[in-house]
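Lab manual, section 2.4: Encoding a predicted structure.

Procedure: take the sequence of the chain (486 residues), apply the prediction step described in section 2.3, and record the output as structure tokens. A sample record is shown.
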Amino acid sequence: MSNRFIVEGVSISPDHLIGGKRVPSKETFAVHSPLNWSVELGRIARGDGETAQQAVAAAEQAFPAWAALSSAERATYLHRLADLIEERKEDLAIVECMDMAMLHESLRLRLIPRGALNFRNYADLAVDYKERVWSSKGTANRVVRMPAGPTVIITPWNAPFMLSTWKCAPALAAGNTVILKPAEWSPLSAALLGDLIVEAGFPAGVFNIVQGIGEEVGAGLVSDPRVRRISFTGSPETAVHIGVAAAKNIVPFTAELGGKGPLIVFEDADIDAAAKKAAGQFDDSGQVCLAGTRILVQASIRDKFLELFHHYADQHVMGDSRDESTTISPMIHPVHMARVAGFVERARKNGDTIVRGGKVFKEGGLWYEPTLIEPKSNASEVVQSEIFGPVLTFQTFVDEADAVRLANSTKYGLSGIVYTSSAERAERMGLAIRAGTVWVNCFLVRDLTAPFGGVGTSGIGREGGDYALDFHSELKTIQILDGSVA
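Recorded output:
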């Protein structure tokens, strides 16, 4: 299979990228657009265990030469790739819009440019690395980074291009070779990234892309003893299997596994701003791991908040993601929509109150109405489980201690949002909430040098800045006896 296919005027290779060449598979799988599920966009190579072995072998062969380059030499490749991403921004945006239905404007203006920034950011961070140098017990000491080895990157179906670049960039900048396995529900932007890798002149085998079903090709990748790092974003259930495979080969492993973030509004907050931000959590059909999906509002402002929340939620427009007036896109896949709808139906049967929404927007499509549920108890499934759809819960609290109790009452801990006008309360809540990131009076403001990750079921390890570069490296201490060398 070598024939490329066309999506919205953009040519896409259906094949893997292994050792710098396009490699087909005997089996393929279909890719559909959530915007019109009845239309097949194309068929993609379906990798297997043998494909996984080929890709790891290519990465292993390319590793010594890539690792031997200086950070500045590797940065040249990463900046060249960033340039090409910016040049192909429009193509990448429309293909990803068709592939997973994220809003086209968000992709074109924010997420695709962020992909280029990821490569630039990590290239520069690696070059600017300052070795720790000190004297101790008659010796001169310094800490250096060594490239770790072939690295497997497994990415999710939401925001696939941005998240692929976010994970691959630090691995490459650190001197590792990469095997990227994109999600089978949204593989097309990764296929375009493969073209850009070749065009940027990366040495063969430094960056490989393997497509397919997780159990068929992903399992072979993470269990290969030649792999020295694994970075995964996805479900906790899959992470358990990957973690077991990594442990058998004693391979460091990071996992970002989603969240169930609280959005906490105190009576002293800018209630209008908080309500607007809360209604904004329906963006991208709620398919955002960082979203504040549990709205916690101080009881004294319950009615005022809900009035404003409904006002802003009413302004959402469900429609074609290519249309600039659309604010809520369809969900990724019929299987996923059925899963989300199942949560809502069980909530009804459980006696939770459906405050708004709660049904499919249009029969035959993948749009689900923005839904708000007031649970009968904090133990309700919709409170405790990640739904990953346009479904939020609403609860009230009495005081700060009650807010902290509710905020920390799930097994997740990726992010939290707090609205208050009190600096003292902002400090207390920021420290008290068990999460990898806490935003106060804002949301989704990201500094790429800051650590990113979760606690509890939200994952292990940290990405971002030097935290990611350290993960993708082996740290070595060199000690030289004072006066022993000239």
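Check your result against the sample. The CA atoms of residues 80 and 227 lie 26 Å apart.
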